[in-house]
């Protein structure tokens, strides 16, 4: 019995040894077969030897790739519109394909194919957009930079969104990397896109933020672009950017300078919002300071805000701003009294300052603020409601820009009776940005039909008869003591004709009475062009921060995704 067990064990060892040798030989033969498969197939027709179909010695057949095309241009466009990464989109398409009875193995779906299909679709889309682009004769060129995710690395990079606008045109030209954000780099990026799109002749005006890299008289980006194009252009600095700086200076003057990236006092509202009773808000009549400052203007301000809401707003925070002003004045917004949760409190978010100051004044008692903080926030809220809200929401109106700026200066002077410190802070900042009261840009007022005919006639007479300065500056400096008695007719000179020359506007209608201008085609056509000049740079800002930042970047002539 014992001997039988020993014999059985020996046979098993020998069988394992033989099996191992056979497997090794099979692997060797398989490798040789794969190397010689081409020669074997080529010589098979000439061979007389019998082929033995032994699976042990045959190469594994290659799996055929599916041929059913489901990555169509429409599918790719939908994925891009949804801002999905290629890996995520592949999983979704695979699940949908299987659910409708189409095995994924039978399709051309894989991550790599989808990624390349998206690249091709963007390239074709870019070419199609350029081919179909028909620019207006008068274009305003915008640019603005944002730090966004890099296309090829995990780092961030500075990109300049370059946009043109006109009577019927609003086109993103590109979102070009500008590594150091210097003026010469911006000029190169902008001019590269202008040349690539073939619009050097149509560009008549520049719109940009009022940072020194753009506005520098010698080496700023605006001057550099003028030199590169070899012609004078209208400078239309962003009016929203100017008003952002005004509110920033007022806030810091009252609350003190910021010591970090966030506004610390706003964190109180964020932390206590969940426990705030939204029914226990208070209005301007609760406080002596706000009641005295706002009662006379209450109805007109509410009416203005309601008109702005009815006309539609491009952003939710603009709408919230208007609603909070109405609520603080004791009115009811069209959508009813409602309060949105507090948003980000980063110092760079200027609108947050306006919204937080209003909201914290409304819920002052619920938040348990110190007397000093509550009073300071109320002072800012009063300025926002009495002076600032109209200035901000009228800023996009090009034709009335000179009139609105002069009116803002006069209201600022009147505000000295309410709060001298706040009025001076607003004056010091706004007084540095009187671009639209320059001899050149006061030409907008010729088309301002909110002015009476006599006033507009005075502006025209100044254009025809008053000698201008030898070197007309792009922005005006004023002695604030003279502001109460100033009228727009005193700002126009013969240098204002440059406004019309740059835009190619025929001024023959100057010879006709102002009352007859509306009947003249030359005036009506010119007014359409002037009314469409963009005096805010929101076009470029939204191109980067919104759609371009999360979706498309344009480098050269190709569209590339910002996410994969």
What labels describe this entry?
8% strand, disordered C terminus, alpha/beta, 7 strands, Nucleotidyltransferase, domain 5, five-stranded mixed beta sheet, 4 domains, two-stranded antiparallel ribbon, 21 helices, 564 residues
List the SSEs and their pairings:
Blueprint: H1 2-43, H2 73-81, H3 86-99, H4 111-132, E1 139-149, E2 156-165, E3 170-177, H5 183-197, E4 203-207, H6 212-215, H7 221-229, E5 234-235, H8 239-255, H9 266-272, H10 288-294, H11 298-311, H12 316-328, H13 350-362, H14 364-367, H15 371-394, H16 401-414, H17 420-430, H18 453-465, H19 497-503, H20 521-531, H21 538-550, E6 552-555, E7 558-561
Parallel strand pairs: 1-4, 4-5
Antiparallel strand pairs: 1-2, 2-3, 6-7
Helix pairs in contact: 2-4, 3-4, 5-7, 8-13, 8-15, 8-17, 10-15, 11-12, 11-15, 12-13, 13-15
Structural overview:
The chain is built from 21 helices and seven strands. With 564 residues, it is of the alpha/beta class. The protein has four domains: 73-129, no CATH class; 133-238 and 537-561, 2-Layer Sandwich (Nucleotidyltransferase, domain 5), CATH 3.30.420; 239-396, no CATH class; 398-531, no CATH class. The chain has a five-stranded mixed sheet with strand order 3-2-1-4-5, with helices on both faces. Strands 6-7 form a two-stranded antiparallel sheet. Helix 2 packs across helix 4 (111-132) and helix 12 runs parallel beside helix 13 (350-362). The longest helix has 42 residues, at 2-43. It is globular. Residues 37-52 and 546-564 have low confidence and may be disordered. Residues 22-38 have a biased composition (Basic and acidic residues). This is 2-succinyl-5-enolpyruvyl-6-hydroxy-3-cyclohexene-1-carboxylate synthase.
């Amino acid at each position: 019995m014992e001997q039988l067990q020993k014999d059985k064990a020996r046979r098993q060892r020998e069988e394992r040894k033989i099996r191992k040798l056979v497997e090794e030989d099979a692997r060797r033969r398989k490798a040789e077969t794969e190397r010689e498969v081409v020669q074997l197939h080529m010589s098979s027709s000439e061979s007389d030897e019998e082929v033995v179909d032994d699976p042990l010695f045959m190469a594994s057949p290659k799996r055929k790739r599916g041929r059913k095309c489901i990555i169509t241009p429409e599918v790719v466009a939908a994925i891009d519109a949804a801002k999905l990464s290629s890996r995520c989109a592949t999983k979704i398409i695979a699940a949908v394909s299987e659910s409708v009875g189409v095995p994924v193995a039978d399709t051309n779906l894989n991550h790599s194919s989808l990624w390349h299909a998206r690249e091709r679709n963007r390239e074709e889309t870019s070419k199609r957009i350029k081919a179909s682009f028909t620019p207006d004769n008068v274009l305003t060129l915008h640019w603005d930079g944002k730090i966004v995710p890099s296309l090829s690395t995990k780092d961030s990079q500075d990109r300049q969104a370059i946009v043109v606008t006109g009577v019927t045109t609003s086109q993103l030209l590109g979102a070009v990397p500008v590594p150091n954000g210097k003026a010469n780099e911006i000029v190169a990026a902008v001019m590269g896109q202008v040349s690539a799109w073939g619009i050097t002749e149509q560009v008549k005006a520049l719109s940009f933020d009022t940072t020194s890299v753009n506005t520098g008289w010698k080496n700023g980006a605006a001057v550099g672009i003028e030199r590169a194009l070899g012609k004078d252009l209208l400078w239309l600095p962003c009016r929203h950017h100017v008003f952002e700086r005004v509110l920033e200076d007022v806030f810091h003057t009252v609350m003190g300078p910021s010591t970090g990236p966030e506004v610390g006092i706003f964190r109180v509202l964020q932390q206590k919002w969940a426990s705030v009773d939204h029914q226990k808000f208070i209005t301007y009549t609760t406080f002596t300071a706000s009641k005295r400052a706002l009662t006379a203007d209450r109805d007109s301000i509410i009416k203005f805000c309601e008109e702005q809401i009815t006309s539609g707003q491009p952003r939710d925070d603009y709408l919230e701003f208007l609603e909070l002003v109405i609520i603080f004045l004791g009115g009811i917004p069209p959508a009813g009294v409602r309060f949105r949760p507090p948003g980000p409190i980063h110092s760079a978010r200027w609108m947050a300052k306006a919204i937080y100051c209003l909201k914290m004044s409304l819920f002052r008692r619920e938040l348990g603020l110190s007397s000093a903080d509550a009073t300071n926030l109320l002072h800012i809220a009063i300025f926002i409601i009495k002076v600032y809200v109209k200035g901000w929401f009228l800023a996009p109106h090009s034709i009335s820009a000179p009139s609105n700026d002069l009116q803002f200066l006069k209201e600022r002077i009147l505000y000295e009776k309410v709060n001298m410190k706040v009025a001076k802070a607003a004056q010091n900042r706004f007084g540095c940005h009187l671009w639209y009261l320059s001899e050149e840009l006061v030409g907008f007022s010729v088309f301002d039909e909110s002015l009476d005919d006599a006033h507009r006639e005075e502006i025209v007479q100044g254009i025809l008869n008053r000698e201008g300065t030898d070197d007309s500056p792009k922005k005006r400096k004023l002695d604030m003591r003279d502001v109460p008695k100033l009228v727009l007719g005193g700002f126009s000179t013969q240098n204002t004709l440059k406004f019309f020359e740059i835009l190619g506007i025929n001024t023959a209608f100057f010879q006709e009475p102002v009352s007859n201008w509306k009947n003249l085609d030359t005036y009506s056509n010119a007014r359409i062009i002037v009314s469409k000049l963009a005096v805010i740079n929101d076009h470029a800002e939204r191109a980067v921060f919104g759609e371009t930042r999360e979706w498309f970047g344009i480098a050269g002539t190709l569209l590339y995704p910002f996410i994969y």
